[in-house]
Amino acid sequence: MPKRLANASDSEQEPTWTDSEEAPSEEDSDYEQESQPKKKAKTPANKENKPPSKSAKTPTSGVKPQEKVIERLRRSLLTSINAQMVYKKSLKRSSSRVNVEIPNLTPADVEAILGPALYGRATKGPKQVAVTTGSSADLKEVLGRAPYKSLRYGAALVLAQDALKLVYSRDSGILKATAACIMDK
Hints:
Elements lengths: L64 H20 L11 E7 L4 H15 L1 E2 L3 E5 L3 H8 L4 E3 L5 E14 L4 E11 L1
Antiparallel strand pairs: 1-6, 2-3, 3-5, 4-5, 5-6
């Protein structure tokens, strides 16, 4: 190994070698160079480099993608309401509250979810759109069917008077659905 000369300012200067010894060269190293040419590094596959998959193509059923989103939101609303409808002893004499929120909606999405009849009946203010369903036909239009959960001995959990209050806040973009769940014998 070559020896370095010690200087007081060694930490700031590059090392100097004595004349009797040669500076280390790349040829003296133990590292073997590859004889094969280097392969190009693979770039990670991302959406920009890949062709679109078959599922990303236009649906063959003729349903527009926006309509599929609206149907998915309606199913989600129904599933969330059904999940909150749970039997309690207090349901024999009173009701239980059901609350669901769907965030990040535009006014056009809300109009599509409610349908033309309910949206036409809704009270539309500068900050919110509010409507209450009054029949099972209205619930069918919004959710596809009325929320229902069967219990033992012929009892069932349903929404009180088929009433579901839907309030959309234009400021926050949240659709809130509230209802009362009762036990029907």
